[in-house]
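This part of the workshop introduces the protein records we will be handling. A learned vocabulary of local backbone shapes supplies the integers on the structure line. Getting from the letters to the tokens is the skill we practise here. As an example, a complete record with its sequence and its structure tokens follows.
=====
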Amino acid sequence: MDLIPKPDQVVSAASNVAHKVLYGGLADLRPMPRTLIDDGTLREVYHYRPAGTVKETGDPVLLVTPLAAPAICYDLRRGCSLVEHFVTGGRPTYLLEYGEVSFRDRNLGMEHWIDEVVPTAIREVSAHAGGRPVHVIGWSLGGIFSLLTAADQPDLPIASLTAVGSPIDVSLVPLVAPLRPLLNWVNGKGPITKGYQLLGGAPKPLVKWAFQLSSVQKLVTKPLAMASHIDDTEFLAQIEAVDRFTANMIAYPGRTFGQLYHRFAKGNQLATGEFELDDRTIRLGDIKVPVLVFGGSTDGIAPVPAVKAVIPLLTGSPEVRFEIVPGGHLGMLTGRAARRTTWVVMDEWVSQWSTALEAEAGTTASSGARSGAAAIGTNRARRHSSSASRALKK
């Protein structure tokens, strides 16, 4: 809003305030309809119901939720929902989430997710979609779990892999780097270790505080930003949706949190391209599927250099593509700018690495364009051009 508001700005501001008072908010927070198709210990796999006017066709996408974050990261609000984007485009869309983590889950380690949860979800989605290969998309830690799973089990029916804001080299994360010498000095006997062992994990309030700390400047300036954008309905609706997301953070299981703390934050294991799990070593170089990597231009949790560090490690992938997109850690995935940046690149990537059956369906649909049909797939051999693309072909 201008310092001296224009008449239309005053009207918009008054309308927003009235809507907030009368209805409690401006954001459309209705979730996209979905159906549970598989579940297990801290594993829930959902299929989003096709949009009423769109036929569901093509290879499925599976959205892998990171630990501690609510699954609404992919379905933030109507108009800024990656789920809505895929579903209304006719793409078979699935979600993996974990439910509430309790004290009884304290002994579950990363093995549970890499050996059981993520692989089972991929197989179930493929089976539910008629045996098609799956385009796996993981945000933050969900991307790291997806990468490790694909490296550990190359026989999984994966068509492509997308990691969004997944930090690989934590020494390049400004929030963590200054603390690493101190963490290493206490040698596993400090208050953090004792705290998560006593509590059985990282509790919700701590997880919420850590997420807010990454954007403390925005948190401090939030009242002023809201006041200066009181006439901007989209801006205010996005803030409401992000506030709901932050309020619904989930706890970390104790053993998993301990592994993440000691191996990622302190040991920085993934930066070497190898990860020790049980009696084996998982090597990112063993990933045999195409990989798309996103870094957020203003991401404080996973800065671009920390994310880009994975690129030289993916030596076995047939193609690796790296994209820098606008936004912070959540904004790059489901912010207002993501609709014309991140999601567009995802669509290109999924179409590029779709199966021959989908390519044929796309050709058939194109030939029927005169009747209003829309092509969903494209020929796998086609290479999409993009001015923002930094494709690294092998």
Summary: The first helix runs from residue 7 to 23. Confidence is low (pLDDT under 50) at residues 177-186, 193-203, 359-394. The first strand starts at residue 34 and ends at 40. The radius of gyration is 21 Å.
